[in-house]
Amino acid sequence: MANAADKPFLMPVEDVFSLHQGRLVMVTGRMERGSVRQGDAVEIVGFDGNVTHIVAGIEQSRVAIEAATAEMNVGVLLPGSAMGAVSRGRVLTKPGSIRPAPAR
C-alpha cells in the first residue's frame, strides 16, 4: 500500500493571508498527502469552480523551503490573483486529481 507522500498532492486550506500589498497570497494548512515544489501548478477546488495557479514559494515556520511533503504544516505562496478564489475550507490539489462533490 502506498504511503501518503506517494499519492497526489492535497492540502485543506486552514487560513488565507494577503502579503506584499496584495501581490501574494499565503495559504496555510497541513498537507494531507503528496508533495509540492515551488513552480508546481496547483488547483484550488471549490463548489463554484476550480482555479489553477503556480506556486510562488513555500514556507515552514517562516523559513522558505524548496519542497514540502505529506504531514507538514506549511504556507503555500500563490500570486495575488488567487485571493478571490481561495478561502478556508477549500483544498489545494494537483490539477485534475479531485473534483468537488455535487451539491445536494
The gyration radius over C-alpha positions equals: 13 Å
| SSE ordering | EEEEEEEEEEE
Strand count, sense and closure of the main sheet? 5 strands, antiparallel
How many beta-strand elements?
A: 11
Please report which band the strand proportion falls in: under 5%, 5-15%, 15-25%, 25-35%, 35-45% or over 45%.
Answer: over 45%
Low-confidence stretches: none
The computed structural class is mainly beta
Please tally the helical runs, counting DSSP H or I stretches of 4 or more residues: 0
Q: How would you characterize the overall build of this protein?
A:
The chain is an all-beta fold. 0% of the residues lie in helices and 45% in strands. It contains no helices and 11 strands. It has a 5-stranded antiparallel sheet with strand order 2-3-10-7-8, with no helix packed on it. A 4-stranded antiparallel sheet has the order 1-11-5-6, with no helix packed on it. Strand 7 and strand 8 (63-65) form a beta hairpin. The radius of gyration is 13 Å and the shape is globular.
Characteristic terms for this protein:
single chain; 104 residues; mainly beta; five-stranded antiparallel sheet; four-stranded antiparallel sheet; globular
Question: Strands, helices and their partners?
Answer:
Elements (H helix, E strand, L loop, with lengths): L9 E3 L2 E5 L4 E7 L4 E3 L3 E5 L5 E4 L2 E4 L2 E3 L1 E3 L3 E7 L11 E3 L11
Antiparallel strand pairs: 1-11, 2-3, 3-10, 4-9, 5-6, 5-11, 7-8, 7-10
